[in-house]
Amino acid sequence: MNQQANSDKSRRGIARRLALSGGILIVLLLLVELAVRTRQYIQYGTFGAMHVFELDEKSGLLIPPPGRVTKNFTINELGFRGPLLEIPKPTGRLRLAFLGASTTFCAEASSEAVSWPARIAAAISAQVPGIAVDYLNAGVGGHLLEQIHRNLESRVAPFEPDVIFIYEATNDLTRDTREIAVAQHAYTGHADRESWLSAHALTWYLIEKNLLLRSRKRDAISDQAHIQFDPREVSIKFRARLGALCDAAKSRSKLVVLMTFSTQARRGQDPERLNEACNTSFYYMPYMTAELLLDTFDEYNRVIREVALEKDVLLLDVAAAVPGDREHFSDSVHFKDRGCAVFAEAILAELNRSPRWKALLAR
Predict the structure, then answer these.
(1) What gap in Å lies between CA 107 and CA 297, rounded to an integer?
(2) pLDDT value of position 204
(3) What pTM, to 2 d.p., does this model score?
(4) Contact indicator for 285, 293 with CB cutoff of 8 Å
(5) How does pLDDT run across 172-208, given as a tens digit for each residue?
(6) Centroid of chain to Cα 216
(7) Distance CA 223, CA 212 (A)
(8) What is the per-residue pLDDT across 291-309, written as a single tens digit (0 to 9) for each?
(9) 48, 56, 84, 131: which is deepest, by most CB within 10 A?
């Protein structure tokens, strides 16, 4: 009996120690998660992911949740970043609309006022004090030109924009090159969506993403699983989609503005710096090399220039305006506050040199 009692007592002691250790581990994990989410809030203005979406039943598009508020940005009740605009548009109002994806939405900007669309609207308002100016930031993370086109027709057009700015390349470039990578058996379609655990624990999400980032960067700078293609052949579909969007935008506004696309990666950077600048591009396109990324982004910018000429829309060739460094870019394609400021200044300088722009303001 004594031996059995001692055995039971020992098992209970082990169980208590295991329970205590488990409890301590859970508390430590919760503290780590709290610390990571606090850091996320300090850096990006939200305790969770920057880009969160819900389905808009009218358009069938994924859009930012209406009414979402973070330290860095506010989503109005119609699902657009920034203030809610009046419909119908007041007489005499100059309304700007910015179409694009996450690089237009600017979640990395520390506040609404310092995002490049807001900076442009504020500067134009200051330049033309006799004209009331407002703007619509219609950028949505992850959108391709097809979704941007649908966004224009179903959600932006009712606001009657006078000027439509279009800024997108990287999402379409990713989709177009993935199709080739699949055909060449260099890409198996690994998911960009996070696992169940990373969807609920920011700490695990960051660990998982950083491990994937390192793995895909390593693949990109190795000699394995690279694809080969002519960038001019890849850009054919992009040209058609961009041309269709320009046609739709021209029918909905007085002036359409196309901008060439800016990336942190630049020719002339040393190999280590170049690969670092391509980090997030490698995350989504691990089958690419840095040199092929440069060539393909150059090709997509060439197409943007040619489409602007073919469709008779205003081109702002500002791809090289923002320095390709960590002070201006938060990753391969998204601007920090300083990058937003330089980009907006470059756009405004090009606008002010344009006869079309001057004619619009003189009406």
Answers:
(1) 22
(2) 47
(3) 0.83
(4) yes
(5) 999 999 999 999 988 876 555 555 544 545 554 555 5
(6) 19
(7) 18
(8) 999 999 999 999 999 999 9
(9) 56
Cis, bond preceding 88 (omega within 30 deg of 0): yes
CA distance 220 to 285: 8
Per-residue pLDDT tens over the stretch 231-253: 999 999 999 999 999 999 999 99
Place of tokens 């041309």: 243
Residue 111: name the closest of 82, 136, 132 by CA.
Answer: 82
- Using alpha carbons only, give the angle 293, 294, 299 rounded to the nearest 5 degrees: 95
Per-residue pLDDT at 72 = 87
Does position 47 have pLDDT exceeding 80, yes or no?
A: no
Pairing of strands 133-137, 163-167: unpaired
Token pair recorded at residue 56: 């808009």
- Mean of pLDDT over the chain: 86
Taking CA atoms, 85 is separated from 107, 128, 135, 354, in Å, by 20, 20, 8, 27
Q: Give yes or no for residue 57 having a pLDDT over 70.
A: yes
**Secondary structure, 3-state, the chain:** CHHHHHHHHHHHHHHHHHHHHHHHHHHHHHHHHHHHHHHHHHHHCCCCCCCCCEEECCCCEEECCCCCECCCCEECCCCCECCCCCCCCCCCCEEEEEEECHHHHCCCCCCHHHCHHHHHHHHHHHHCCCCCEEEEECCCCCCCHHHHHHHHHHHHHHHCCCEEEEECCHHHHHHHHHHHHHHCCCCCCCCCCCCHHHHHCHHHHHHHHHHHHHHHHHHHHCCCCCCCCCHHHHHHHHHHHHHHHHHHHHHHCCEEEEECCCCCCCCCCCHHHHHHHCHHHHHHCCCCCHHHHHHHHHHHHHHHHHHHHHCCCEEECCCCCCCCCCCCECCCCCECHHHHHHHHHHHHHHHHCCHHHHHHHHC
Return the percentage of the chain with pLDDT > 90, whole number: 69
CA distance 214 to 280: 10
Other Cβ atoms less than 10 A from the Cβ of 160: the count is 15
Per-residue tokens: 287: 């089958």
The pair of three-digit structure tokens given for residue 169, joined into one six-digit string:
């390349």
